């Protein structure tokens, strides 16, 4: 998957973010939500430090997503699911045993 860069503004500060091809709309929606949440916390006037505002915004968004999940809303997971495991490789056990016997000879297979 190729990535491109997208410049965004959150709470008046510019950021350059990596964005997968075709993910512009989803990233723009996420940026809008984060910006709206951070500005609301800042405008409430109780918190001034950008870092604390960001943490509170992240917690508010995560809480909201958890509530939606609990209520049965369709919410995408925060991380993509792992890819399915590869199919099993068929092994010819009888053929392997025959090759081992041929390589070791009749004395090689004796257990004493």
UniProtKB/TrEMBL annotation:
Listed GO biological process terms: cell division
One protein family per Pfam: ZapA
Keywords attached to this entry: Cell cycle, Cell division
Stretches that traverse the bilayer: none
Protein name: Cell division protein ZapA
Species in which this protein is naturally found: Sphaerotilus uruguayifluvii
